[in-house]
Design a protein that fits this description.
five-stranded antiparallel β-sheet, 3 domains, Transcription Regulator spoIIAA, 20 strands, 20 helices, five-stranded mixed β-sheet, Beta-lactamase
């Protein structure tokens, strides 16, 4: 993703990269490399940042397609080629794996053997180049270009001007090559190895290529976009090991301390960083510090590691998929029972509210895919409900990205509804991370059911036309009375009694005798059960035109829940004594009542089955 592209869909991670790019673009320290004349032509204002995940998602900010030369970033990748072509034993015979603590162009050789200390310094890289398979210079170059192109996922070429500049000024490297030949580390003409080394450093890449190279290492050697293997999986650990200990030269120890990801820099201004199993990072900015590392690149990687919690030595918590269940209001509803026309509307428009029941620890790694999915839903989705009941921890990176999600949704006139979240514990810094003018796009509900009802109400208001006044329902409007004639309705009305209840009063208590059926004429009631830990849980909310207490007409017994008046309520009640009389005097009416009751029970069972299927999917 590149910022500002036409039709670009914002995402929380894209927003984070854009913010990061804006923050460090003003950093003007460092100088471009000048010891290779062609590198001195680089524009120090160029700056790109890319994250590529192991499942193929790419986020970009800045100059991500501007090409520059790979330089020393080629070293670990060509090291992998040598491991494949010659085998680990032969490579280790020629090149060590110990940090030198010296600059990249230091002549760090083991006393006596002349073996370079590691493959990340120039001496080790020249020795590595001598081990690439192939009978001729062109074959060895084709081998390296093919491997690095597989890492990048596209054909790569060489900047001939940089190559000529490298070759014509590489006197120190040429001296190192002949010294290696003197010790027998390079067994053939060192000019062949030097030619390949100068050419591999001159390979042209963009910042996006760097991130994909890093992501290929993170993905066990397979490019996450093309699916092409760039290096055998068994060589990933050796490659990442030398990147960790030696990849940033005499800054490697501090890099591991501050950033904590295997990495490699190049004097062309690039840095790659790898978080195994998760992602690769590419940063490009040609102004270098005194060690030869990109000034902006180092600062950006430190900020990303800190803010997204990417340090690979951070004590791990148990990881699991962040989304336990995903469904929409088309399949799972709140406990509010609605009239037919509202249910029909939600059947059609319920897909515009998507519920994500989250679980486990939330971090960059566990929620990146969730955030991407929410963004990819597009503007047809008006509500994203995030349920936190089973979330055990949310780190600062997750909190930051959730705040970014709200901002992105606000820009698209969408709402984020967070339910069952303990803000003081899980999202302690959420309010500070969220811009005040974006707060309108998020709401918090103590229960998932209330969050679902919030979304239902919003969809009904949006797609249901003019709000309808609170209805007053006669018996003819009740579904239990469907099919009854006017005469039968009059008989039924004569058999019922009218009761009015104040808001908050109890119509039915758990344990009461189940001795009457209630027809709601006006107002709303909720059916609730008490919880062992205190409080109560809503089973359903009913409005005019609905009924409750049907067991009075079937199995009898006692009430299993409380029914409370949410508003002023008017009911007509049919007690069991009157029902028995109707069985004797108007059996056809009773058959209709029981038939409608059976139909209602069947529909309820079908909806519950559908909801269970959606929750288990």
């Amino acid at each position: 993703m590149t910022p500002g592209a036409a039709g670009q869909t914002a995402s929380p991670i894209q927003s984070f990269l854009d913010q990061l790019h804006s923050e460090f673009a003003a950093l003007d320290k460092g100088q471009v490399a000048t010891y290779i004349p062609e590198l001195a032509k680089a524009d120090p204002s160029r700056f790109g940042i890319v994250i590529a995940t192991v499942d193929g998602q790419v986020y970009e900010a800045g100059d991500t397609r501007h090409e520059f030369t790979l330089q020393s970033i080629s070293k670990p990748l060509v090291y992998g080629v040598a491991l494949e072509d010659r085998g680990p034993a032969r490579v280790q015979q020629a090149i060590g794996v110990e940090p030198s603590g010296d600059a990249f162009n230091s002549i760090s050789l083991e006393p006596g053997s002349g073996r370079p200390l590691n493959p990340m310094i120039n001496a080790g890289a020249i020795a590595t180049a001598s081990l690439v398979g192939g009978a001729t210079r062109s074959q060895r170059l084709a081998r390296v270009l093919g491997a690095l192109s597989a890492y990048a996922g596209r054909p790569l070429g060489i900047d001939e001007a940089v190559f000529e500049s490298e070759r014509s000024t590489g006197h120190r490297n040429r001296a190192i090559g002949h010294m290696l030949r003197n010790y027998g580390i390079v067994t053939d003409d060192p000019e062949d190895a030097l030619d390949l080394y100068f050419r591999q450093c001159s390979i042209l890449v963009g910042c996006r290529d760097l991130a994909l190279m890093a992501a290929t290492l993170a993905n066990a050697g397979v490019n996450p976009l093309t699916g092409m293997r760039a290096v055998a999986a068994q060589h990933i650990a050796p490659i990442l090991s030398v990147m960790t200990t030696c990849g940033m030269y005499d800054f490697s120890g501090e890099w591991v301390y501050r950033v904590g990801m295997p990495a490699k820099s190049g004097v062309g201004g690039g840095i790659i960083a790898v978080l195994p199993g998760q992602l690769g990072i590419g940063v490009y900015s040609p102004a270098l510090d005194e060690r030869g590392n990109s000034v902006r690149g180092v600062q950006v990687c430190q900020a990303m590691s800190s803010r997204l919690g990417l340090h690979f030595l951070q004590p791990p918590r148990v990881a699991s998929a962040a989304v336990r269940s995903r469904y929409t209001l088309a399949t799972v509803r709140s406990k509010r029972r609605r009239p037919l026309h509202e249910n029909q509307l939600l059947d059609t428009e319920g897909r515009r509210a998507v519920v994500y029941e989250l679980q486990g620890d939330l971090s960059f790694a566990t929620i990146e895919q969730l955030l991407r999915e929410i963004v990819d839903e597009g503007q047809d989705v008006h509500y994203a409900v995030l349920d936190f009941k089973r979330v055990t921890h949310a780190d600062p990176a997750a909190t930051r990205l959730l705040a970014n999600l709200v901002s992105c949704c606000d820009q698209r006139a969408q709402q984020v509804v967070m339910t069952r979240v303990r803000r003081g514990e899980l999202l302690a810094d959420f309010g500070n991370q969220l811009a005040p003018h974006r707060a309108r796009a998020v709401s918090f509900q103590p229960q998932l059911d209330m969050g679902l009802e919030t979304c239902e109400r919003g969809l009904i208001e949006r797609y249901g036309g003019e709000p309808r006044p609170a209805p007053r329902a006669g018996l003819a409007d009740h579904r239990l009375c469907a099919g009854a004639s006017a005469e039968e309705l009059a008989v039924l009305e004569g058999a019922t009694e009218t009761h009015v209840y104040d808001p908050g009063s109890t119509l039915v208590s758990r344990g009461d005798a189940a001795d009457r059926l209630f027809f709601l004429v006006r107002g709303e009631v909720s059916v609730v059960v008490g919880l062992p830990q205190g409080g109560h849980k809503r089973l359903s909310t009913l409005s005019a035109g609905m009924g409750f207490g049907e067991t009075a007409l079937t199995v009898g017994g006692v009430r299993t829940a409380d029914v409370r008046a949410d508003t002023e309520v008017e009911c007509r009640t049919l007690d069991t004594t009157a029902f028995v009389r109707l069985q004797q005097t108007h059996p056809a009416l009773v058959i209709k009542l029981l038939g409608n009751l059976l139909r209602s029970s069947t529909e309820t069972a079908m909806r519950l089955t559908s909801e269970v299927a959606a929750l288990e999917a």
